[in-house]
Amino acid sequence: MFKRQKSLASESKNECFPQGAARSTPKNDMRNFLLSAGPLKPTPAVKHSKTTHFEIEILDAQTRKQICIVDKVMQTSTIRDVKQKFHKTYPKWYPSRIGLQLEHGGPFLKDYITIQSVAASSIITLYFTDLGQQVSWTTIFLAEYTGPLLIYLLFYLRIPYIYDMKESSRRPRHPVVHLACFCHCIHYIRYLLETLFVHKVSAGHTPLKNLIKGCAFYWGFTSWIAYYINHPRYTPPSFGNRQVTVSAINFLICEAGNHFINVVLAHPNHTDASCWALTGEKELHASCPHLYSWTFLICWSI
Q1: What is the overall mean pLDDT for the chain?
Q2: Element (H or E) spanning 101, and its range?
Q3: Cβ(196)–Cβ(134) under 8 Å?
Q4: pTM (global) more than 0.85
Q5: HSE (CB half, 13 Å, CA atoms) of 92?
Q6: Distances from the Cα of 277 to the Cαs of 58, 137, 189, 201, in angstroms?
Q7: How many angstroms separate the CA atoms of 256 and 250, rounded?
Q8: Element housing 71 (H / E)
Q9: Model confidence at 220: pLDDT above 50
Q10: pLDDT band for position 284 (50/70/90)?
Q11: Chain centroid to CA 266
Q12: Which pLDDT score is estimated for 51?
């Protein structure tokens, strides 16, 4: 009886799965589903958003009180961009007059420094200092060199407000006086042309007091030399024409040397094309011919 029931169960089992047909299992069904649906796509990684804007709090360097907040500052923005936005809020402070410090009492930040390089967080605190009235470097150089050129010519013409007219009319000028005027004009005309066409003057500014100090030095020194060389009682050099000739030749050599050195230093391969700066050995090479030219100019006048 038991054997008969077992045989009936096996027969019914064979009827459900005919011969040659593969038996399906849950595991096989899942595999077939995956193959028909295609490969699984990887889950995209969640990217954490980075800070793209900064908020800059500007405090007064003396009182530590908040002046304004400059918001929505990009990572690639520079200190100059911050100054421009600050100027829009307070028009009386133009960018060249604004001094920004990262720490109170620290150095002023250069205009080309990026905000990202000084940022420790999304909120940056900068200290503001009013640098006072500013002038460009080109204005300073042109004022320093134009003044001596005109001042010397006033003494050379012996205007009555400087020398006595009767004495000036009685005493004719010595030839060395004309030569000195020519060399002095050549010197400062060269300076003016180099300032306009050779030197790479930066777009930066400097306080107005530097203009006053520079003009006082150049104009005062020129007045002192011009007064004695163009004076009606001026006497020729002690050693005569030999002293004048040697000094004049050396003066012209130094002028040419100083010019060619300035041209080389202004070349982009040797100096930064964005600014005019002489430091260390370069400054020594440029200054020596300049000083020697003045030395020889004085030598033929004594």
Answers
A1: 78
A2: strand 98-101
A3: no
A4: no
A5: 2
A6: 31, 11, 21, 8
A7: 10
A8: strand 66-74
A9: yes
A10: very low
A11: 15
A12: 52
